[in-house]
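Ex. 9. Protein: NAD-dependent epimerase/dehydratase family protein.
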Amino acid sequence: MRIIVAGGDGFCGWPTALYLSKRGHDVAIIDNMIRREMDNELHSNSLTPIASLEERAAKWEELTGKEIRTYDGDLNHYDFLRQVLKTEQPDAFVHFAEQRSAPYSMIDREHAVFTQTNNVAGNLNVLYGIKEIVPDCHLIKLGTMGEYGTPNIPIEEGYIEIEHKGRKDVLPYPKQPGSFYHLSKVHDSHNITFACKIWGIRATDLNQGVVYGLETEETKMDPLLTNRLDYDGVFGTAFNRFIIQAAIGHDLTVYGKGGQTRGFLNIEDTVRCIEIAAENPADKGEFRVFNQFTEEFSVGDLAEKVKKVAHEEGFETDIAHLENPRVELEEHFFQAENTKLRDLGLEPHLLDDNVIREILHTVVQHKDRVIKENVMPQVSWK
Ligand code: NAD
Ligand code: USQ
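Predicted structure tokens for NAD-dependent epimerase/dehydratase family protein:
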């Protein structure tokens, strides 16, 4: 298949592009490098040193003989996007290219407005581009489990059957997101639902949980192919942050009580889920929703798991319960469906001590790059 990976310079996008290329797909990347600019804005960095996208793609071609074409540009520049779609004629458009940090979206008005403009308008451009230029192309859109929030009933995959005043219907599952970033994903989902209905676009919304790990078989092939790894209080995510904190002897930063429970998955499963979605496209006019995570954990449990392995490896670390900078439930019911991707063939990489140990060993090699002032959370929801 001809596949565009938008956001293909990022944490999920880069390993996905390599994986799809390795599996024989013809891959092109769109990215405007804004994530690298945000590192500069935040005086932060990836824990791992990352090569430029051109260097990465050239190394991949040298090692495998497979070309990944790269387009440096913004989804919000519609003429640019149209041109790429005309040139590439993709069968699938994998859309990772959004501002993805909840704390970044909560810094102030400017960052909230940027997040929603970049994400919602960018996605709308993709929908128009597909309608206008490649109407059969399958949109594979990265959503988030956080669209659902933490309701006191089980979470379904996108839709719920409701009986009300003696009548029944299957309706979109209620959304109660917890940041202006998570809200941008809800707005995207609504726009895609509508576009599928009126134009007959085929789309899959992948409501992904929190991704952990960094390496895949492909990124390990050469240091120039290494994936980025975020650890700061803005872009770092819970589990990866805990492992890096253990490596540098920092207390593990559990926010509040630590009962916040989320869906998690290994980056090695992210890349496979995208392949599964691409190879099993939605029907024309169908807006399909998959919950993309493999296991549920509370952040407190994850911190305990990291602490245990870190101790075994000789790293002394404690768990700190910080005042929660976010507004969220710290103890709640959480039970979410995730059978659709498994039914299509996903065989999860589950979390065990060896997985934690392996990530810890990778992280330790780069621990001197950590900018310590960036580890504590600095963005408040209030
Ligand atoms: P990332 O920030 O590492 O990568 C996103 C990439 O998109 C960056 O390289 C950035 O430069 C690019 N980009 C952003 N806006 C763009 C635009 N307007 N035009 C072109 N390029 C643009 O993020 P990630 O962790 O790889 O996440 C990828 C996607 O997966 C996001 O949509 C995110 O919401 C979703 N997701 C991520 C996680 C996670 O744990 N990382 C979990 C669930 C969902
Ligand atoms: N948390 C801590 N300590 C930390 C960091 C986070 O306790 O040091 C807590 C948060 O308060 C929250 C939970 O861990 O309750 C998850 O936070 P996170 O920063 O790991 O993840 P989140 O902000 O939800 O966002 C990340 C990605 C985002 C994606 C989302 C999937 O950045 O792109 O959409 O995970 S989900 O959470 O399922 O919506």
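Check your answer against this statement. The chain is about 40% helix and 20% strand.
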